[in-house]
Write a structure and sequence with these properties.
By secondary structure, the protein is mainly α. It is 63% helix and 4% strand. It starts with 24 loop residues before the first helix and ends with a helix. The relative contact order is 0.10.
Length: 489
């Protein structure tokens, strides 16, 4: 509509042709999403560039108009990245901001860009591109964390560490075994993000508002231009589902659950009561009133951020559960939990990496507690079974009585007197008794695949290195592939 035909009461919105009243202030305030979805600017411009090329290919745009649009979008991206771009609440979202500014810059050609496209399929594509971009960053951070865990495990191969069940000392393990337990958990997270990437790697442009578009859009051209793997099968499904965000948030939530467990252990193990590890000063804080305090802030904040991430996932599940097909304005709110979770996981992975690299393992406290916790009681029972040929239930009772006497006399298995052992069972005065309860021997007796024995730890290191190199190779290949495609385009 040109200016002379425009009603003085007409709505100034890009979609306002059929409206005669100006939008209410509450509509502007409740409907705006630019305060958060401006984070999608790069993905929106990337999608618009591909869409413009496709429009030129099918004859909607001329070569000259395409060149104007490309130059205009490049300038807009530069303005946003240098802080020169003006964001206005009344323009609602990043899509309308970019289209409006493009029209200001190049005139009528800018108004043609939205041909054969709805904001519904546009935003769905933007979000998918955003998730793919973020997963690449998360993968890099996870690889770095895994490298630090493996390095710490190797350097801790001959250091003992307490293994727990029910937060009660159970058995001695090698510290390497502890770090490798967390390594495998985070490796599974990396695998999960790979799966999310494969299901998100989809072209949805061309779906329109929900039924497709009235133009001969070349979706295969768009797929190749955006370097995506496949094309959505159903236009309603493409614009109405948020499975890609839910899967992304679930992967982040699983990873954050693992991160929170590590953080919880570091909080406990660095306390005065445990004193198994010391965190570096640079990752801790003091108290404004108690000068002696050294608080594990990074670990506590990671634990706190995990709760926020779980809430992000639940809020999105609640958001979509009652929405009928296809698009609903509720979906505008899907990006807030996604952006928050993305920031939380990256901060948390970096924080974990720094703590793992900088921590000190305090072996003397560990050994004291391993002895105090009767951590080799099971080894003693097994020794009675294998060497003394005593039935396990009888051996269990003998060792249980021994622990009871130790507790009453405030001694451990290593310091209880020979006389006290003799009173419980003459088998316990064997000269090999101390060898049977040795902390290091206990660890090395667990010589089964996946066990804490030294030999099995070396096997784990080799397996971990192999899998890590495989992921590093995959990610490097993917980066080179994308770089080559960008170069050709």
């Amino acid at each position: 509509m040109n200016k002379k035909n425009k009603s003085p009461n007409s709505n100034a919105k890009l979609w306002g042709g059929r409206f005669k009243e100006l939008t209410a202030d509450i509509m502007n305030r409740i409907g705006e999403s630019i305060s958060f979805d401006k984070e999608l600017y790069a993905q929106d411009i990337r999608g618009s560039l591909a869409h413009a090329k496709m429009l030129c290919k099918i004859g909607i745009l001329t070569e000259k108009e395409l060149l104007l649009i490309e130059r205009g979008l490049t300038k807009i991206q530069s303005e946003i990245e240098t802080g020169k771009f003006e964001f206005k609440q009344e323009l609602e979202d990043i899509h309308m901001h970019i289209e409006s500014r493009l029209t200001q810059l190049i005139g009528e050609a800018g108004k043609k860009l939205h041909t054969a496209r709805s904001r519904n399929d546009q935003v769905s594509q933007d979000v998918r591109l955003y998730i793919l971009d973020q997963i690449k960053i998360i993968e890099t951070e996870l690889i770095l964390l895994l490298e630090h865990l493996l390095e710490r495990a190797k350097s801790s191969l001959d250091i003992l560490f307490p293994g727990y069940t029910h937060l009660q000392i159970a058995q001695p393990i090698r510290a390497s075994h502890y770090f490798m337990a967390h390594f495998w958990a985070f490796l599974r997270d990396l695998e999960l993000f790979q799966h999310v990437k494969s299901t998100t790697d989809l072209l949805v442009l061309g779906s329109g508002a929900m039924a497709g578009v009235n133009y001969n859009s070349d979706r295969e051209f768009l797929r190749k231009e955006l370097q995506l793997s496949s094309i959505s099968e159903n236009s309603m499904d493409a614009v109405s589902q948020r499975d890609h965000i839910i899967q992304y948030l679930f992967a982040i939530s699983q990873c954050m659950a693992h991160a929170s467990r590590v953080a919880e252990e570091f909080i406990i193990y660095s306390s005065t009561e445990f004193n198994y590890i010391g965190l570096p000063d640079r990752l801790t804080s003091g108290s404004s009133i108690m000068p002696q305090k050294k608080n594990p802030d990074v670990a506590e904040l990671i634990r706190g951020k995990s709760a926020m991430v779980f809430g992000n996932l639940m809020s999105l599940l609640a958001l979509v559960k009652g929405t009928a097909l296809a698009y609903n304005r509720d979906f505008q709110e899907d990006k807030i939990p996604m952006f928050q979770a993305s920031k939380h996981i990256l901060l948390s992975l970096e924080g974990l990496r720094e703590m793992i690299a900088g921590m000190e393992i305090r072996s003397s406290s560990i050994e004291t507690n391993l002895k105090k916790g009767f951590s080799t009681a099971t080894d003693l029972a097994d020794w009675l079974v294998s060497v003394k040929k005593i039935p396990f239930r009888e051996a269990h009772e003998i060792v249980g009585n021994l622990v009871s006497v130790c507790t009453k006399k405030n001694v451990d298995l290593f310091s209880i007197s020979l006389e006290d052992r003799k009173k419980i069972s003459y088998h316990l005065i064997d000269p090999n008794y101390l060898e049977a309860i040795s902390l290091y021997n206990s660890a090395d007796k667990k010589n089964v695949a996946g066990g804490t024995a030294r030999k099995r730890q070396l096997e784990q290191f080799a397996q971990a290195e192999k899998k890590l190199k495989l992921f590093q190779s995959k990610i490097l290949t993917s980066k080179k592939k994308n770089s080559n495609k960008k170069g050709k385009s």
